[in-house]
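Board notes, transcribed. Complex of a protein with magnesium ion.
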Amino acid sequence: MILDGQDSAAIEAAAQALRRGELIGLPTETVYGLGADACSDAAVAKVFALKGRPADHPLIVHVADVAGVDDFAGAVPGFARALMQRFWPGPLTLILPRKLDVGAMVAGGQDSIGLRCPSHPVAQALLRAAQALGVHGVAAPSANKFGRVSPTTAHHVRDEFGDALLVLDGGACAVGIESTIIDCTRGAPVLLRPGQITWDQVLSTCGPTVSGQAALAQPAPRASGTLESHYAPNAQVRLMETDQLQVALDLLGKQADTLSLAVYARTPVRLPSPRVLLRRMPIQADAAAHQLFAVLRELDAKGLKLIWIEMPPASTDWAGVRDRLVRAAA
Ligand code: TXA
Ligand code: MG
């Protein structure tokens, strides 16, 4: 059931549900999460089961503020503190050394833990209400079945899990793609997943010494966001450079009538047939991220078989969108 996240009674009901070990859907500024009490192994087990996610894939724990970090992490490096200072609350997840007596299940057995302090006012209100009931962290992976496109509205969450789940409605997510993830356990930052906060912003916050070391860091460990075919819609997605896309469309000619094809392009294209559906991708990266998953869901819901997408620019502000598109096409 979808409840208005502005309503304090709804926030209280969701916090009580978390305390009872139940799952809820919650809005964040990135995507909607499937929330559970991070310190209850039984509740966390329900998240893995409902998502269909392997139990060794760690979940992100959401905390109300920077002070919440100390409940879950020890030996927090200085550059991680600097990142929290600059970007929290906001769309940044930090992987930190885990306090070994907490969160083994939520961390998928790893000796690290992913922490994030979301800025969405409904998420903030919920985290504080839950804290007042003794729930000190909310484990929340994106509220979608494993390997599917992340939800950016309360209705998307209901489409994934049905009406029995309590979902707080916080409107359409402002960012629209999942948080940037930075591993802070290896002496220098390592980018595990690009998002709205760019690698350049991360490096400029960490200072020259740490940034220099970052270039030498090892490749990423296991993270479900790094699996090739993650974020996949049902339709077959093909990514093309601008010129290649127009050539491919011209080549289709009359054949386009028989295909169930949608084109998602930033630059104007000539379509071979009025039966090809066209969606324009915004010119700005942030605007494109905001609508990306909703567009993929919409095209899927129309039953389209093929989605041809124009590859966005290679600049760092587009890294998050490019990453999700490459995965959708995998
Ligand atoms: O924007 C977001 O981060 C959203 C919202 C709901 O906050 N959450 C999200 O969670 O995207 P999820 O579970 O779908 O993705 C979490 C990613 C996974 O790829 C997971 O493997 C990685 O974070 N992760 C979490 N804890 C980790 C750890 N200790 N070490 C390495 N990777 C970790
Ligand atoms: Mg996810």
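The longest strand covers residues 92-97. The radius of gyration is 20 Å.
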